[in-house]
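Just wondering, does anyone understand what follows?

——
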Amino acid sequence: MTHTLASLPIIDIAPYLETERDLVKCQSTSDALHNACVKYGFFYLDISQFIDPSEPEELTQLAREFFALPQEEKDKIGLEHQDNARGYQRLKQNVTNGKADNHEGIDLYKPVEKPDKSKPLWGENQWPDIPGFEHKYEQWIAKMKKLGLIVMEAMSVGLKMTTEEWMELRAQVDDSFWVMRIIGYPPLPTDDDGFSCGAHKDYGCLTFLYADPTRSALQVFLRQSGTTASDLDGLPAEHGTEEGMWINADPVPNCVVCNIGEMWEIWTNGLYKSTLHRVVHRGSNYRIPFFFEPNFTANIAPLPAALRLVPSQDKESSNEGQSYKSVVYGDFLLRKVDNNFALDGKGKYD
Protein backbone atom coordinates (compact mmCIF):
# COMPACT_ATOMS: atom_id res chain seq x y z
CA MET A 1 0.00 0.00 0.00
CA THR A 2 1.45 3.33 -1.04
CA HIS A 3 0.13 6.85 -1.04
CA THR A 4 1.66 10.28 -0.80
CA LEU A 5 1.82 12.89 1.92
CA ALA A 6 3.81 16.09 1.36
CA SER A 7 5.31 14.42 -1.71
CA LEU A 8 6.88 11.55 0.25
CA PRO A 9 5.33 8.08 -0.19
CA ILE A 10 4.03 5.96 2.68
CA ILE A 11 5.05 2.32 2.27
CA ASP A 12 3.59 -0.54 4.29
CA ILE A 13 6.17 -3.16 5.27
CA ALA A 14 3.47 -5.54 6.60
CA PRO A 15 3.61 -8.01 3.64
CA TYR A 16 7.18 -8.88 4.61
CA LEU A 17 6.18 -9.55 8.22
CA GLU A 18 3.82 -12.40 7.38
CA THR A 19 4.84 -16.00 8.10
CA GLU A 20 3.30 -17.02 4.78
CA ARG A 21 4.08 -14.13 2.48
CA ASP A 22 1.81 -13.01 -0.34
CA LEU A 23 4.37 -12.63 -3.13
CA VAL A 24 2.23 -10.16 -5.07
CA LYS A 25 1.91 -7.86 -2.06
CA CYS A 26 5.61 -8.24 -1.28
CA GLN A 27 6.49 -7.31 -4.86
CA SER A 28 4.26 -4.24 -4.60
CA THR A 29 6.07 -3.13 -1.44
CA SER A 30 9.46 -3.75 -3.06
CA ASP A 31 8.51 -1.80 -6.17
CA ALA A 32 7.33 1.08 -4.00
CA LEU A 33 10.64 1.05 -2.10
CA HIS A 34 12.62 1.04 -5.34
CA ASN A 35 10.65 3.93 -6.80
CA ALA A 36 10.95 5.93 -3.58
CA CYS A 37 14.73 5.40 -3.46
CA VAL A 38 15.17 6.44 -7.09
CA LYS A 39 12.95 9.50 -6.84
CA TYR A 40 13.32 10.73 -3.26
CA GLY A 41 15.81 8.82 -1.13
CA PHE A 42 13.21 9.31 1.64
CA PHE A 43 9.91 7.66 2.51
CA TYR A 44 7.57 6.91 5.39
CA LEU A 45 7.58 3.29 6.53
CA ASP A 46 4.35 2.05 8.06
CA ILE A 47 5.41 -0.23 10.92
CA SER A 48 2.02 -0.44 12.66
CA GLN A 49 2.11 -4.25 12.35
CA PHE A 50 5.65 -4.38 13.72
CA ILE A 51 5.58 -2.32 16.92
CA ASP A 52 3.17 -1.24 19.63
CA PRO A 53 2.63 2.55 19.40
CA SER A 54 3.24 2.82 23.14
CA GLU A 55 6.87 1.71 22.71
CA PRO A 56 8.29 4.87 21.11
CA GLU A 57 6.14 6.99 23.43
CA GLU A 58 7.85 5.32 26.39
CA LEU A 59 11.24 6.04 24.81
CA THR A 60 10.33 9.71 24.41
CA GLN A 61 9.24 9.93 28.05
CA LEU A 62 12.55 8.41 29.18
CA ALA A 63 14.45 10.86 26.96
CA ARG A 64 12.50 13.76 28.42
CA GLU A 65 13.38 12.56 31.91
CA PHE A 66 17.09 12.42 31.09
CA PHE A 67 17.34 15.79 29.36
CA ALA A 68 15.54 17.45 32.28
CA LEU A 69 18.34 16.41 34.65
CA PRO A 70 20.84 19.00 35.92
CA GLN A 71 23.79 19.48 33.55
CA GLU A 72 26.27 17.94 35.99
CA GLU A 73 24.17 14.74 36.10
CA LYS A 74 24.08 14.48 32.32
CA ASP A 75 27.80 15.13 32.10
CA LYS A 76 28.45 11.97 34.15
CA ILE A 77 28.03 9.96 30.93
CA GLY A 78 29.81 12.50 28.71
CA LEU A 79 31.65 11.37 25.57
CA GLU A 80 34.99 12.23 27.18
CA HIS A 81 34.56 9.38 29.69
CA GLN A 82 34.75 6.83 26.88
CA ASP A 83 35.95 6.96 23.25
CA ASN A 84 34.66 10.47 22.50
CA ALA A 85 31.86 8.93 20.44
CA ARG A 86 29.72 6.95 22.90
CA GLY A 87 27.74 8.82 25.52
CA TYR A 88 26.22 12.22 26.17
CA GLN A 89 27.08 15.25 24.05
CA ARG A 90 26.28 18.71 25.33
CA LEU A 91 24.42 21.41 23.45
CA LYS A 92 26.46 22.57 20.44
CA GLN A 93 29.05 19.80 20.88
CA ASN A 94 27.97 18.14 17.61
CA VAL A 95 28.92 19.91 14.38
CA THR A 96 27.38 19.96 10.89
CA ASN A 97 28.87 21.90 7.97
CA GLY A 98 31.28 23.65 10.32
CA LYS A 99 28.50 24.95 12.57
CA ALA A 100 27.59 23.79 16.07
CA ASP A 101 24.18 22.07 16.23
CA ASN A 102 21.53 23.26 18.67
CA HIS A 103 20.77 19.91 20.21
CA GLU A 104 22.05 17.61 22.93
CA GLY A 105 22.01 13.86 22.74
CA ILE A 106 23.13 10.40 23.77
CA ASP A 107 25.04 8.41 21.17
CA LEU A 108 25.02 4.61 21.28
CA TYR A 109 26.89 2.20 19.01
CA LYS A 110 27.04 -1.54 18.51
CA PRO A 111 28.95 -3.08 21.44
CA VAL A 112 32.38 -4.37 20.44
CA GLU A 113 34.57 -7.22 21.63
CA LYS A 114 37.49 -6.19 23.81
CA PRO A 115 36.44 -2.54 24.20
CA ASP A 116 39.24 0.00 24.45
CA LYS A 117 38.21 3.60 25.04
CA SER A 118 41.55 4.85 23.73
CA LYS A 119 40.53 3.70 20.23
CA PRO A 120 37.95 5.64 18.16
CA LEU A 121 34.49 4.03 18.40
CA TRP A 122 35.86 1.12 20.43
CA GLY A 123 34.65 2.12 23.89
CA GLU A 124 31.54 1.06 25.78
CA ASN A 125 28.06 2.55 25.68
CA GLN A 126 27.09 4.78 28.59
CA TRP A 127 23.54 4.63 29.92
CA PRO A 128 21.68 7.09 32.15
CA ASP A 129 20.97 5.95 35.69
CA ILE A 130 17.21 6.02 35.11
CA PRO A 131 15.05 2.95 35.90
CA GLY A 132 14.02 1.10 32.75
CA PHE A 133 16.05 3.33 30.40
CA GLU A 134 18.62 0.81 29.17
CA HIS A 135 16.12 -2.07 29.05
CA LYS A 136 13.53 -0.17 26.97
CA TYR A 137 16.10 1.19 24.55
CA GLU A 138 17.77 -2.20 24.15
CA GLN A 139 14.38 -3.62 23.15
CA TRP A 140 13.96 -0.88 20.54
CA ILE A 141 17.46 -1.49 19.19
CA ALA A 142 16.71 -5.21 18.73
CA LYS A 143 13.51 -4.41 16.83
CA MET A 144 15.20 -1.83 14.58
CA LYS A 145 17.99 -4.29 13.74
CA LYS A 146 15.36 -6.82 12.72
CA LEU A 147 13.50 -4.17 10.73
CA GLY A 148 16.71 -3.24 8.95
CA LEU A 149 17.19 -6.76 7.63
CA ILE A 150 13.53 -6.94 6.56
CA VAL A 151 13.74 -3.67 4.61
CA MET A 152 17.05 -4.69 3.05
CA GLU A 153 15.46 -7.91 1.80
CA ALA A 154 12.49 -6.00 0.40
CA MET A 155 14.87 -3.60 -1.35
CA SER A 156 16.80 -6.52 -2.85
CA VAL A 157 13.58 -7.68 -4.51
CA GLY A 158 13.00 -4.16 -5.83
CA LEU A 159 16.47 -4.29 -7.40
CA LYS A 160 15.63 -7.67 -8.98
CA MET A 161 18.48 -9.39 -7.17
CA THR A 162 18.74 -13.15 -7.32
CA THR A 163 18.46 -15.13 -4.08
CA GLU A 164 22.21 -15.72 -4.19
CA GLU A 165 22.89 -12.01 -4.69
CA TRP A 166 20.62 -11.13 -1.78
CA MET A 167 22.44 -13.57 0.50
CA GLU A 168 25.76 -11.95 -0.47
CA LEU A 169 24.34 -8.50 0.33
CA ARG A 170 22.82 -9.78 3.57
CA ALA A 171 26.24 -10.99 4.66
CA GLN A 172 27.40 -7.36 4.51
CA VAL A 173 24.74 -6.16 6.99
CA ASP A 174 23.99 -9.18 9.19
CA ASP A 175 26.28 -7.90 11.96
CA SER A 176 25.30 -4.26 11.53
CA PHE A 177 27.57 -1.68 13.16
CA TRP A 178 24.42 0.19 14.14
CA VAL A 179 24.18 3.61 15.74
CA MET A 180 21.32 5.12 17.73
CA ARG A 181 20.94 8.68 18.88
CA ILE A 182 18.57 10.04 21.49
CA ILE A 183 18.24 13.75 20.73
CA GLY A 184 16.72 16.61 22.66
CA TYR A 185 16.12 20.11 21.30
CA PRO A 186 15.96 22.82 23.97
CA PRO A 187 14.78 26.40 23.26
CA LEU A 188 17.06 28.22 20.82
CA PRO A 189 19.20 31.19 21.85
CA THR A 190 17.97 34.49 20.45
CA ASP A 191 21.01 34.97 18.19
CA ASP A 192 20.57 31.68 16.39
CA ASP A 193 19.78 31.19 12.68
CA GLY A 194 16.95 28.74 13.34
CA PHE A 195 18.66 25.40 12.67
CA SER A 196 18.90 22.56 15.15
CA CYS A 197 20.95 20.54 12.67
CA GLY A 198 22.16 21.88 9.33
CA ALA A 199 21.71 20.28 5.91
CA HIS A 200 23.52 16.97 5.53
CA LYS A 201 23.28 13.49 4.06
CA ASP A 202 23.43 10.31 6.13
CA TYR A 203 26.43 8.26 5.15
CA GLY A 204 25.47 4.76 6.18
CA CYS A 205 22.76 2.39 5.01
CA LEU A 206 19.20 2.98 6.36
CA THR A 207 17.92 5.49 8.90
CA PHE A 208 14.71 4.83 10.85
CA LEU A 209 13.59 8.01 12.57
CA TYR A 210 10.97 8.20 15.28
CA ALA A 211 10.10 11.81 16.05
CA ASP A 212 7.57 13.37 18.37
CA PRO A 213 4.55 15.08 16.72
CA THR A 214 6.28 18.45 16.21
CA ARG A 215 5.48 19.64 12.69
CA SER A 216 7.76 21.38 10.19
CA ALA A 217 10.91 20.28 12.03
CA LEU A 218 12.42 17.80 9.55
CA GLN A 219 12.91 19.18 6.04
CA VAL A 220 13.97 17.18 2.99
CA PHE A 221 15.48 18.53 -0.22
CA LEU A 222 13.73 17.09 -3.27
CA ARG A 223 15.75 17.24 -6.47
CA GLN A 224 13.71 18.50 -9.40
CA SER A 225 15.39 19.43 -12.66
CA GLY A 226 14.44 22.82 -13.99
CA THR A 227 13.01 23.90 -10.65
CA THR A 228 14.27 27.02 -8.96
CA ALA A 229 15.07 26.01 -5.41
CA SER A 230 12.69 27.57 -2.92
CA ASP A 231 13.35 27.57 0.80
CA LEU A 232 10.72 27.24 3.48
CA ASP A 233 10.22 30.16 5.85
CA GLY A 234 13.02 32.19 4.24
CA LEU A 235 15.70 29.94 5.73
CA PRO A 236 19.21 30.03 4.25
CA ALA A 237 19.85 28.02 1.08
CA GLU A 238 21.89 24.94 1.97
CA HIS A 239 21.65 22.92 -1.21
CA GLY A 240 24.48 24.38 -3.27
CA THR A 241 23.79 24.36 -6.98
CA GLU A 242 21.27 21.51 -6.96
CA GLU A 243 17.85 22.26 -8.41
CA GLY A 244 14.81 21.38 -6.33
CA MET A 245 12.86 22.38 -3.26
CA TRP A 246 12.75 21.88 0.50
CA ILE A 247 9.65 20.16 1.85
CA ASN A 248 8.47 19.32 5.36
CA ALA A 249 8.55 15.64 6.34
CA ASP A 250 6.11 15.82 9.23
CA PRO A 251 5.62 12.80 11.52
CA VAL A 252 2.91 10.37 10.41
CA PRO A 253 1.15 8.12 12.95
CA ASN A 254 2.44 4.53 13.07
CA CYS A 255 5.32 5.37 10.73
CA VAL A 256 9.03 6.01 10.95
CA VAL A 257 10.70 8.29 8.46
CA CYS A 258 13.22 6.25 6.51
CA ASN A 259 16.05 7.46 4.32
CA ILE A 260 18.98 5.88 2.57
CA GLY A 261 22.61 6.74 3.23
CA GLU A 262 25.68 7.00 1.04
CA MET A 263 26.37 3.26 1.16
CA TRP A 264 23.25 2.74 -0.93
CA GLU A 265 24.61 5.23 -3.46
CA ILE A 266 27.68 3.02 -3.82
CA TRP A 267 25.72 -0.24 -3.91
CA THR A 268 23.50 1.13 -6.70
CA ASN A 269 26.26 3.08 -8.49
CA GLY A 270 24.27 6.29 -8.05
CA LEU A 271 20.86 4.92 -9.03
CA TYR A 272 19.72 5.64 -5.46
CA LYS A 273 20.82 8.96 -4.04
CA SER A 274 21.29 9.91 -0.40
CA THR A 275 19.19 13.04 0.14
CA LEU A 276 19.98 16.30 1.91
CA HIS A 277 17.88 16.95 5.00
CA ARG A 278 17.98 19.28 7.99
CA VAL A 279 16.24 19.94 11.29
CA VAL A 280 14.62 23.33 11.84
CA HIS A 281 13.98 24.32 15.42
CA ARG A 282 10.29 24.38 16.38
CA GLY A 283 10.54 24.49 20.16
CA SER A 284 11.47 21.69 22.53
CA ASN A 285 11.09 18.24 21.00
CA TYR A 286 12.69 14.80 20.87
CA ARG A 287 13.92 12.54 18.08
CA ILE A 288 15.21 8.97 18.15
CA PRO A 289 17.00 8.01 14.91
CA PHE A 290 18.31 4.47 14.52
CA PHE A 291 20.99 3.99 11.88
CA PHE A 292 21.07 0.48 10.43
CA GLU A 293 24.57 0.30 9.00
CA PRO A 294 26.73 -2.26 7.19
CA ASN A 295 29.07 -4.54 9.11
CA PHE A 296 32.22 -2.75 10.23
CA THR A 297 34.41 -4.87 7.91
CA ALA A 298 31.99 -4.92 4.95
CA ASN A 299 33.47 -4.02 1.57
CA ILE A 300 30.84 -1.85 -0.12
CA ALA A 301 30.93 -1.92 -3.92
CA PRO A 302 28.40 -1.48 -6.77
CA LEU A 303 25.98 -4.40 -6.99
CA PRO A 304 25.68 -6.29 -10.30
CA ALA A 305 21.88 -6.17 -9.99
CA ALA A 306 21.91 -2.37 -9.79
CA LEU A 307 24.25 -2.11 -12.76
CA ARG A 308 21.88 -4.30 -14.78
CA LEU A 309 19.02 -1.88 -14.06
CA VAL A 310 20.76 1.24 -15.33
CA PRO A 311 20.51 1.67 -19.14
CA SER A 312 23.88 2.26 -20.79
CA GLN A 313 23.03 5.84 -21.76
CA ASP A 314 22.09 6.65 -18.15
CA LYS A 315 25.38 5.17 -16.94
CA GLU A 316 27.25 7.55 -19.23
CA SER A 317 25.30 10.64 -18.19
CA SER A 318 24.94 9.96 -14.47
CA ASN A 319 28.38 8.65 -13.58
CA GLU A 320 30.47 9.11 -16.72
CA GLY A 321 30.37 5.38 -17.31
CA GLN A 322 32.41 4.71 -14.18
CA SER A 323 31.54 2.67 -11.14
CA TYR A 324 31.60 4.18 -7.67
CA LYS A 325 34.77 3.23 -5.83
CA SER A 326 34.44 0.53 -3.20
CA VAL A 327 34.96 1.36 0.49
CA VAL A 328 35.40 -0.65 3.66
CA TYR A 329 32.58 0.67 5.82
CA GLY A 330 34.55 0.82 9.09
CA ASP A 331 37.33 2.88 7.47
CA PHE A 332 34.75 5.20 5.92
CA LEU A 333 32.96 5.58 9.27
CA LEU A 334 36.14 6.40 11.19
CA ARG A 335 37.01 9.17 8.74
CA LYS A 336 33.55 10.69 9.15
CA VAL A 337 33.41 10.43 12.93
CA ASP A 338 36.83 12.06 13.12
CA ASN A 339 35.27 15.28 11.82
CA ASN A 340 32.06 15.13 13.75
CA PHE A 341 33.05 17.23 16.74
CA ALA A 342 35.48 19.63 15.04
CA LEU A 343 34.21 23.02 13.95
CA ASP A 344 35.82 22.60 10.53
CA GLY A 345 34.25 19.18 10.09
CA LYS A 346 31.00 17.75 8.80
CA GLY A 347 28.33 16.22 10.99
CA LYS A 348 27.18 12.69 10.44
CA TYR A 349 23.85 12.13 12.06
CA ASP A 350 20.84 14.32 12.76
Observations:
- Confidence is low (pLDDT under 50) at residues 1-6, 225-240, 341-350.
- The radius of gyration is 20 Å.
- The chain is about 30% helix and 25% strand.
- The longest helix spans residues 133-158.
